[in-house]
Amino acid sequence: MDGIRYAVFTDKSIRLLGKNQYTFNVESGSTRTEIKHWVELFFGVKVIAMNSHRLRGKARRMGPIMGQTMHYRRMIITLQPGYSIPPLRKKRT
């Protein structure tokens, strides 16, 4: 999976698991159709909607040189009812 970096686990993303929505950080240059294809191919699910936003890199200093981390893109992927991504599924107690 070239475009998907990793799954995101924040308070909001854990709350979205109940709505069958999963959050991933992806490569900045990836298109929506590429991400949709990779998710459907790798996880074996059907995607019905995708929302994305770009997040700026954070400023970092190394001695006198000021730099920043890489920009990245976050995708919120909504799956069809009945589908889920097993390792990321929230346990019900």
Automatic annotation (TrEMBL):
<dbReference type="GO" id="GO:0009507">
    <property type="term" value="C:chloroplast"/>
</dbReference>
<dbReference type="GO" id="GO:0003735">
    <property type="term" value="F:structural constituent of ribosome"/>
</dbReference>
<keyword id="KW-0699">rRNA-binding</keyword>
<dbReference type="InterPro" id="IPR001014">
    <property type="entry name" value="Ribosomal_uL23_CS"/>
</dbReference>
<comment type="function">
    <text>Binds to 23S rRNA.</text>
</comment>
<comment type="subunit">
    <text>Part of the 50S ribosomal subunit.</text>
</comment>
<keyword id="KW-0150">Chloroplast</keyword>
<protein>
    <recommendedName>
        <fullName>Large ribosomal subunit protein uL23c</fullName>
    </recommendedName>
</protein>
<dbReference type="GO" id="GO:0003729">
    <property type="term" value="F:mRNA binding"/>
</dbReference>
<dbReference type="InterPro" id="IPR013025">
    <property type="entry name" value="Ribosomal_uL23-like"/>
</dbReference>
<keyword id="KW-0934">Plastid</keyword>
<dbReference type="GO" id="GO:0005840">
    <property type="term" value="C:ribosome"/>
</dbReference>
<dbReference type="InterPro" id="IPR012678">
    <property type="entry name" value="Ribosomal_uL23/eL15/eS24_sf"/>
</dbReference>
<keyword id="KW-0687">Ribonucleoprotein</keyword>
<keyword id="KW-0694">RNA-binding</keyword>
<dbReference type="InterPro" id="IPR012677">
    <property type="entry name" value="Nucleotide-bd_a/b_plait_sf"/>
</dbReference>
<comment type="similarity">
    <text>Belongs to the universal ribosomal protein uL23 family.</text>
</comment>
<keyword id="KW-0689">Ribosomal protein</keyword>
<dbReference type="GO" id="GO:0006412">
    <property type="term" value="P:translation"/>
</dbReference>
<dbReference type="GO" id="GO:1990904">
    <property type="term" value="C:ribonucleoprotein complex"/>
</dbReference>
<dbReference type="GO" id="GO:0019843">
    <property type="term" value="F:rRNA binding"/>
</dbReference>
<dbReference type="Pfam" id="PF00276">
    <property type="entry name" value="Ribosomal_L23"/>
</dbReference>
